[in-house]
Amino acid sequence: QFPASDIEKLLDYVSAPAGAALLDDVAIVVSELVGNAVRHGQPPVRVEVVADNGDGSHVVHLVCHDSGPWDGTPPRPDGGRGFVLVRGLAAEVLVDADSSHTSVRATIIR
What we know:
Blueprint: E1 2-3, H1 7-15, H2 20-40, E2 46-52, E3 59-66, H3 82-89, E4 92-98, E5 101-109
Antiparallel strand pairs: 1-2, 2-3, 3-5, 4-5
Helix pairs in contact: 1-2, 2-3
C-alpha cells in the first residue's frame, strides 16, 4: 500500500513486472481516481496496488479509498470525463460506497 501522495513509488512498483503500455494506463487510472477522491471525497485518500502475472497477462488491481460518500456526480462542462476514461482503460471498475466512505476498484489487464 502506498499513500496517495507517493505516486512515484507506486509507479516504480508497477513498472517492474509490466510493460510501458500497462504503466501508462496505470498512471492515468491512478491519477483520475486520486483526482476524483481529492475533488469529491474527503481525506484520507489511500491507494492500494496488487500486480499479478499469473496467467501470462499483466494484471494490476487498484483500489482508491476516501472518507467521503459517493455522490454520483454527473459529468460537467469543466470536467467529469475522468471516470469515463477509467472505465475505458480498466477491464472492471467497481464502486463500494456508503455515507462514510468510497472505494473505487479498477482492474487493468494487458
